[in-house]
């Protein structure tokens, strides 16, 4: 059978699902594009949907990864961890981290339509209103956070837990007993996140709700002005022309397939190129294109077209590690499932989208501030955005559906807004050579001390009388009687990224000589190029960042549309 015939047969198989998701540029209609979006992730999918609401604008989305359609591990909420270290993950690894005893850490990133919203843990946490007010102060704009806004008819599903855990009642009873820092918060997404509440997740009707399933649903993919190209990797953005001495960057260079041997193409946007390749992909492509620190670019043989030293700097992520307590319990929710159980649960899910596989492994979450009386403040400034902003995130892990061994109770200990900063830079000018990612984890002493404060908060919470019958004894990563030195070494040996990198193409005031984009998300010192993704955040939010990225993309869509009316 000829290759062309095979391709035709394959196309016939996928056409009823998505006639406009293609894998070859030559298969697309021969049209000019008003906007070219680099990256079909969380932000890119939103932009594609919103900009094609105007039927006069043609939009092309270029996604390096494959389509999300039919990927079971992305559809089933409880299977999200199966996506790591696969074709659906960029499989990034950090440089050796001094704060982690020189360990390298894995940093999963979505290499799939929908980006990280197609592979993440589905936590939907907005952060505090302080977070967004701080952004406004940085850029010189008024903040627009409205705590009363909770959509009911939006494209993305947001729900509460669907799989009760034995731990749930204990958590809420302890909250009632202790109050104070552990008070019950009916809605931790109200702008004031502090306290303990039920986790909100991007799950609907028993399936993951991602940017791809929501904003690139079949009804939107039918739009004749929206074209999506997957398995095509952008290697550079190119200077198209010059306007009054300013480089105009509206041309995108990309390579078909997953390797450097694929066919090479270029496409030019009539209005704008929008970078939505994420906190790693966006600065990486900018630097390959000659936009970044001029001295660093020349060192790897790249001619700079715009000297923007902030590109790739300010990398911020939340350090975290997991604590585990074994339980002497027999509830079915609290043991590692057998293959038989997994088969039964999958059968139930396939039949009616219910059962244990619809859960994400966490039902409740605590957001805690470090006490004002803590000695941590004697030598360190407060990195939190304001008084309504937590320093620590403690999601409670209720049993065997989470990928931890044995009958357990666990919690992650997360520094929500750290002081440490890292960077992303080029290893060479080869676009298929992985970047150098220095996460900077625990390079600032505050972050380690904050993790220790998290341990104290967890111990205080578990001292509530409701937990007495469980006779809890910490088993990992240290023991209850471990010394402070042993605890510190354990943290450095197991801590990792919370995989919420932001800030590598940060916003700043329009006339500032630092930062990468202005308040309208236009790249400084060039024209025709905008960035819309987590890289533009000047500070990380006290949250899992997908909610903030959705907000950025929705707001950017309005700004872009308004600028071309």
From TrEMBL:
InterPro entries: FAD/NAD-bd_sf, Glucose_Oxidase_domain_2, GMC_OxRdtase, GMC_OxRdtase_N, GMC_OxRtase_C. It holds the Pfam family GMC_oxred_C. Residues 1-19 form the signal peptide. FAD binds at residue 234. The active site is at residues 500, 544. Catalyzes the single-oxidation or sequential double oxidation reaction of carbohydrates primarily at carbon-2 and/or carbon-3 with the concomitant reduction of the flavin. Accepts only a narrow range of electron acceptors such as substituted benzoquinones and complexed metal ions and reacts extremely slowly with O(2) as acceptor. Belongs to the GMC oxidoreductase family. Monomer. This is pyranose dehydrogenase (acceptor).
């Amino acid at each position: 059978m000829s290759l062309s015939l095979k391709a035709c047969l394959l196309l016939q198989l996928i056409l009823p699902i998505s006639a406009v998701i293609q894998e070859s540029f030559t298969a697309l209609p021969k049209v000019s594009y008003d906007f070219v979006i680099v990256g079909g992730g969380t932000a890119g999918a939103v932009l594609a949907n919103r900009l094609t609401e105007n039927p006069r604008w043609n939009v092309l989305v270029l996604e390096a990864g494959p389509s999300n359609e039919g990927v079971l591990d992305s559809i089933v909420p409880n299977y999200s961890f199966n996506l790591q270290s696969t074709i659906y993950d960029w499989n990034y690894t950090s440089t050796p981290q001094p704060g982690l005893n020189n360990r390298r850490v894995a940093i999963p990133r979505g290499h799939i339509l929908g980006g990280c919203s197609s592979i993440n843990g589905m936590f939907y946490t907005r952060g505090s209103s302080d977070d967004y007010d701080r952004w406004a102060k940085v850029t010189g704009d008024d903040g627009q956070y409205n705590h009363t806004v909770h959509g009911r008819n939006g494209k993305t599903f947001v729900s509460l837990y669907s799989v009760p855990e034995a731990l749930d009642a204990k958590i809420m009873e302890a909250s009632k007993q202790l109050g104070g820092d552990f008070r019950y918060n009916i809605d931790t997404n109200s702008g004031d996140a502090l306290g303990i509440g039920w986790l909100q997740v991007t799950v609907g009707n028993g399936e993951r709700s991602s940017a791809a399933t929501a904003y690139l649903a079949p009804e939107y993919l039918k739009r004749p002005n929206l074209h999506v190209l997957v398995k095509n990797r952008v290697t550079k953005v190119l200077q198209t022309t010059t306007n009054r001495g300013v480089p105009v960057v509206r041309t995108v260079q990309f390579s078909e397939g997953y390797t450097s041997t694929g066919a090479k193409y270029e496409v030019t946007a009539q209005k704008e190129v929008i970078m939505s390749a994420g906190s790693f992909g966006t600065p990486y492509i900018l630097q390959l294109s000659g936009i970044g620190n001029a001295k660093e670019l020349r060192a790897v043989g790249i001619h700079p077209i715009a000297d923007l030293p902030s590109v790739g700097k300010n990398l911020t992520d939340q350090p975290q590690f997991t604590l585990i307590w074994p339980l002497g319990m027999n509830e079915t929710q609290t043991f590692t499932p057998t293959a038989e159980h997994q088969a039964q649960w999958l059968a139930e899910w396939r039949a009616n989208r219910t059962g244990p596989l619809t859960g994400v492994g966490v039902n409740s979450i605590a957001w805690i501030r470090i006490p004002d009386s803590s000695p941590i403040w004697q030598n360190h400034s407060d990195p939190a955005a304001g008084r309504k902003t937590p320093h620590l995130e403690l999601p409670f892990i209720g049993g065997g559906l989470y990928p931890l061994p044995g009958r357990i109770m666990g919690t992650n200990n997360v520094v929500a807004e750290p002081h440490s900063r890292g960077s992303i830079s080029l290893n060479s000018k080869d676009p298929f050579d992985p970047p150098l990612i220095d996460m900077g984890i625990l390079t600032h002493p505050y972050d380690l001390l904050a993790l220790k404060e998290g341990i104290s908060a967890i111990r205080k919470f578990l001292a509530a009388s409701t937990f007495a019958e469980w006779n809890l004894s910490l088993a990992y990563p240290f023991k209850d009687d471990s010394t402070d030195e042993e605890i510190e070494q354990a943290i450095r040996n197991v801590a990792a990224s919370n995989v919420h990198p932001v800030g590598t193409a940060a916003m700043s005031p329009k006339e500032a000589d630092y930062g990468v984009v202005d308040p309208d998300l236009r790249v400084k010192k060039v024209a025709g190029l905008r960035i819309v993704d987590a890289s533009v955040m000047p500070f990380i939010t006290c949250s899992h960042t997908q909610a903030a990225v959705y907000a950025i993309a929705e707001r950017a869509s309005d700004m872009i549309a308004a600028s071309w009316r």
